[in-house]
Amino acid sequence: MEALSPTMEEGRVVKWHKRDGDPVKIGETLAEVETDKAVMDLVARADGVLRQVAAAEGQTVAVGSVVAVIVAPGENVGATAAAAAPATSSASGKREGGNVATAAAPAPVAVAPLPTVAPADATRVKASPLARRIAKEAGVDLKLVTGSGPGGRVVKKDLERAPSPGTRAAPTATVAAPFPISRVPPPERTGAAYQDVPLTQIRKTIAKRLATSLGPIPHFFLTTEVDMERASEARDALNKQLGDEGGKVSFNDIIIKATAHALTKHPACNAWFQEDHIRYWHEVHIGMAVAVEDGLITPVIRNAELKSLADIGREAKELAERARNRRLQPNEYTGATFSVSNLGMFDIDQFTAVINPPEAGIIAVGSIVQKAVVVDGQPAVRRRMRITMSCDHRVIDGATGAAFLKTLKQMLENPLAMLL
User: Fold this and answer.
1) Distance CA 39, CA 299 (A)
2) Rounded-to-integer distance, Cα 161 and Cα 295, Å
């Protein structure tokens, strides 16, 4: 089991693409593995034949543990196969005996057979967990749906286009209901007083990350309210100009762009705490919090300060879709210098977000609501939005964070300020 992400300590085998006795070549996908962040491909690091598959689908395996052995045709499994050291990603294809996952083993000696995996249902359809849940609720047969995701995987948007049984209505009509639906599927009722559900890989990581954030990091919070009238007008004008083919700019895209631009004016907030030093970044990489079915992940829009609103919108949409399908690559969710978490679509007026170390700050964005306010001494109804900034006091002082938040507010209230 390789470390398929920088923070991965164990992986859950989702599906085997190769079976015991199948020939394999370097680079071929052996299995899909759920890491702490995404579903990744475990690939062959040598040519040969797959033998002694030791991890069943659904089983969680520690990094470095044996999941299978690759041998030359007619070769026996090496004596140390079952107790091999962690894989070293040797991709040379050379072997001196059986290859355990990715590493060469000593001279071949017969060993006791490891438990093999029974062949999975050949008719099993590749689909995201969210798509499976939606299909189950709507009574849609996934075998009849054409997948548009990676490798033909069925995703949510495929089900939105598929007719449900006995009706022409889309099977995901409930998703468009006025009430947001939790992305976490409830456990099935069994009649017992409670049910224990093992932690998924992503929830294990969230638990560890939070323990290294809210406790050790001295948080403080700053809140401001922003007049979003001009930003709303600018968004409407941009979307009208882009038309149906150019995609749509969201308020979140505008907030990401304004945040990135404000960070260029306040580099003291675009920083990492590094134990014995502070790293101030000259580039702005914005982490964008995305809710997935069993947790949260923050895809990164790199060099956001240099990208147009349209580019940020397209990239944010693509990253969010891959995040929900658990298909992000490690370089797509690591390296953020500052983060944005937006719960406005859930009608949340205001909240505080937990800093994602080693970053020194994150902003929490609430909903845009119409409020009666006083403008130039006269009562008026304006669209308003609250933003709360969480600061690491080891890096950002109160006045420093307040100055950044003031600049961000000015840019959102007057979008032309981003051109200065």
Assistant:
1) 14
2) 26
Average pLDDT estimate for 25-53: 88
pLDDT of 186 higher than 90: no
Average pLDDT of the segment spanning 73-99:
48
What's the first-to-final CA gap in the chain, in angstroms?
51
- SS3 annotation, 79-142: CCHHHCCCCCCCCCCCCCCCEECCEECCCECCCCCCCCCCCCCCCCCCECHHHHHHHHHHCCCH
Partners of 50 in beta bridges: 70
Q: Is the dihedral of CA 131, 132, 133, 134 positive or negative?
A: positive
Active site amino acids: 393
Residue ranges and CATH numbers for the domains of the chain are 10-104 (2.40.50.100), 129-176 (4.10.320.10), 204-419 (3.30.559.10)
CA–CA separation, 189 vs 200, rounded Å? Answer: 19
Alpha-carbon dihedral 307, 322, 286, 184, rounded to 10 degrees: 140
